[in-house]
Amino acid sequence: MSTSDSATSSPPSNAVRNYTLAVIVLIYASSHVDRQIVSILAESIKQDLLLSDSQLGFLIGLSFALFYATLGIPIAILADRYSRRNIIAISVIVWSGMTALSGLAANFFQLALARIGVGIGEAGSSPPSHSMIADLYPLEKRGAAMGIYAAGINLGVLIGFLVGGFIDEWYGWRMAFFIVGVPGIFLGLLMFLTVREPMRSSPPKPLPKNLFKEVWNTFVLMMSIPSLRHIVIGCTLVVFVGYGTTYWNGVFFRRLHGLSPSETGVLLALIGGIIGGVGTFFGGWLADRLAQRDQRAYVWLTAAVKILIAPFVAWFYFETDTRIAAYLLAFIAFFGGFYLSVSFAMTQTLLPPASRALGAAILLFCINIIGLGLGPFVVGILSDFFSAEHGADGLRYALVIVTLLNIWGSYHYYLAGRSLRADLEAVK
Predict the structure, then answer these.
(1) Which of 74, 202, 203, 404 could form a disulfide with 353 if both were Cys (CB 3.0 to 4.6 A apart)?
(2) pTM for this structure?
(3) Which domains are present in the chain?
(4) Other Cβ atoms closer than 10 A to 322
């Protein structure tokens, strides 16, 4: 897998650029199908394997995130030097196979091992994808491109919840893992056979003699850029809330609103997949437009949105009327992903080209170890704690407490805006 493997020697045409982005988005969506599927199946898995909410939280988040985030960094170092296309293709085949194997798990330990395997595979997806998009699109189009890429999350949510809910109800949770896992193997082959490696913005550096030193130096560089430092902190806090709540919403509607697996799947698929996807793309597009007048809009838009929707999130979790709760969740989902494309795009823009994949991996490490790993796990622990006195409502209280961290996260996005202009000038 050489540095120039299948790399184009000239800037890609719009057709090639858009096709490459489309395949990357489909692969990103596949990763979120395989990642999110546990949340819609969680209540059935709990009943079948006799698990606690804390164990569910570990399966949903921490078992996956530990390896996903940690291995993302060395893979990103390879992606800054070797074929990003090949790394992505191999990764999607690995995680899809491990998702299918999850359906064979007979106990908590076996399912945890399978989820670890999914995390190992998915570690090779996002950092090289971010780097490819940054080389495919100029700065003025990068926010929108990252918004389209980030919308892959919502496409994955749509497929995962919709397919997972119906298959769980009709054939059981084990079959759901098989059905969503196998198609990803073909996506990996599509990436390898039809996508070409784009030309890099700068020539790759040799492999580092000291891996930890390179990671540490890149992390120090990120923390030395004031706006990027606050973006990393803010994004980590917002993702903690996002994963901590989204991954439990399936259980929330089944346990507290009495919906069936298929009803829950349809509701969350339509809201998270369609409305959330439109909102994520709109957030990237709006940030690009507002930033033409003031570049601070890239981060201040996120700060404002997270503050404004905070009371609606609390209302949603305390609401007992299912119809009103669904409307509230739709409103929250539209604005919920505004931070994502901006955070990805600014990380790529504020770092030198040779460090972009590693910088993306470090950002993903922070948000996934703390956000994806601990978010659902903390909700599960708090749910067990409150359920001892409040029964099923213990999950409701746990979710409301976790959402309060959005306010802290929005403050860091505000702080990022105060130095963003100067930091972008320094990059130039």
Answers:
(1) 202
(2) 0.74
(3) 14-196+212-427 (1.20.1250.20)
(4) 14
